[in-house]
UniProtKB/TrEMBL annotation, chains A, B:
Organism field: Arenibacter certesii
Tagged with keyword NADP: no
All residue ranges annotated as the Prephenate/arogenate dehydrogenase domain in the record: 1-285
Keywords for the protein's UniProt record, in alphabetical order: Oxidoreductase
An annotated GO BP: tyrosine biosynthetic process
Protein name: Prephenate dehydrogenase
PROSITE patterns per record: PDH_ADH
Coiled-coil residue windows: none
NCBIfam families: PRK08507.1
Taxonomic lineage of the native organism: Bacteria, Pseudomonadati, Bacteroidota, Flavobacteriia, Flavobacteriales
Length: 285, 285
């Protein structure tokens, strides 16, 4: 089986590592706009061969793991180039625009819209790790638009990687993911900014910050090149969640200003139930 | 050496475990308003003996690890009860009101104001862990007000526990800690609230949330009984940091509404430097 990984960073590289481990007769071709990343992926044995789109007709499976703005530009070209039996899947954090872009493509049946909910705050080929997808959820959109035989091939792979599958329409995906992923990133980035702006003397932060702060700002290490187009494509949902978050923070601040400590206690106590909700989340680290 | 732990939860219990491990000739007395916690601490061998204030005259070292509102009420009584050679230290997350409360106490020289920057989101005796303080920062306020011999005894202990010491005045402590600790907790609690409020069907959160969300809302599992009085005592600083955080989130939202993706990229890119700042933070998990 010839597998093409378009974008050999954290997400694509981790797919490559797991596919190599679980499927012995596989040849992994890497494609990347950054020649250094491609070289690095080769030297780390993440890919077997450097490639470009001219080799795509040989592909049985193509996994596209690039920023979502580049995704909507490149996916039609990738589908143009593959053969009729190939399955092309993406790993984008947004789904509506990607699905809309391909709705009338001649090879729509060759495409499977995916969002594997997995990752770390790091990026590039060196961030790729084995087992990243084990126990993680893969959200698949518009499954009915993919050819049945190709669905099967993709689902077999996800099963071998240990992923749990959930089906959802692209609009529901983008709405829910704004709350549980996109908002977390903004909250974390702005927390990091607030503290950096105030504490010019970084030594003070370093000395006083504990693991709680580190946990809360971890996502502020994420790649702006990856996240700017996500926020752009999911603008309406993100603005809505952000508005609600700001409203809740304002209410908390007003309770503090009004010395309403009973209200503050209740707010925190009610939110403690996140414990039970989180207990089921498969964690990476 | 007789060590009294007042409040045998995560913080006090972890002190007890480490002191027992590093100092063989020690007897640990536990005091707690919650008889179940005291019983649990005894059965977990965190303490050697249940005690109350009537035994305090036997104490060589007293570590007070209780919510900061109870702290300002109890610390004067504890100091009243100890002998002239005892050192009493606290582990409160605020320092100004505690230091002000004791400024004219007859035994002010027996008191050392501390804030060990360590912990997890869990609480109670069962949350106590060995080595919690290793490599962590302990902020000491108004060191000059503590008797020299007693300073020495406390610093020896911190050294054996592997802690790094930083000296700071109580006002500077409360101002800085609002940014790197108190704000993180509010940010996390309100993020948890926003998502819970929106996503009534918890199954959807569970399925779509990844390790990023878990990391960002981890602190929303923290104890409201512990945190409400912290926010109350540090009200002015917390309101200031919260105002700045809300302002930054508002700016981000406005940039999104104005399609200013270059601005959004720059904000995230500038905040990425948190990586370098965080690299030095000793982590728990």
């Amino acid at each position: 089986m010839n597998v093409f990984i378009i974008g050999v960073g954290l997400i694509g590289g981790s797919f490559a590592r797991d596919i190599k481990r679980t499927q012995p007769n596989v040849r992994i071709f890497g494609v990347d706009a950054n020649p250094n990343h491609l070289e690095e992926a080769l030297s780390l044995s993440i890919i077997d061969e450097k490639a470009d789109y001219s080799l795509l007709p040989q592909a049985d499976l193509v996994i596209v793991c690039i920023p979502v703005d580049v995704m909507v530009r490149e996916l039609p070209l990738i589908l143009d180039a593959v053969n009729d039996e190939a399955v092309v899947m993406d790993a984008g954090s947004t789904k509506s625009l990607i699905c809309k872009t391909l709705v009338n493509h001649d090879k729509r049946r060759n495409f499977l819209a995916c969002h594997p909910i997995a990752g770390t705050e790091f990026s590039g080929p060196s961030a790729a790790i084995e087992g990243l997808y084990k126990g993680k959820t893969n959200i698949i959109c518009e499954i009915e638009k993919t050819a049945f035989k190709l669905q099967e091939r993709a689902l077999d792979l996800f099963q071998q990687l240990g992923m749990r599958i959930r089906y959802m329409n692209p609009e529901a995906h983008d709405k829910h993911i704004a709350y549980v992923s996109h908002l977390s990133h903004i909250s974390s980035f702005m927390l990091g900014k607030t503290v950096i702006d105030k504490e010019r003397n970084e030594r003070d932060i370093f000395d006083m910050a504990g693991s709680g702060f580190e946990s809360t700002v971890r996502l502020a290490k994420s790649s702006p090149a990856m996240w700017t187009p996500i926020f752009k494509q999911n603008k309406e949902n993100v603005i809505e969640t952000l508005g609600e978050y700001i409203g809740n923070l304002e209410t908390f601040k007003q309770m503090l200003e009004a010395d309403d400590y009973e209200g503050i206690y209740d707010e925190m106590n009610n939110t403690n139930k996140i414990k039970g909700i989180l207990n089921g989340i498969p964690l990476n680290k």
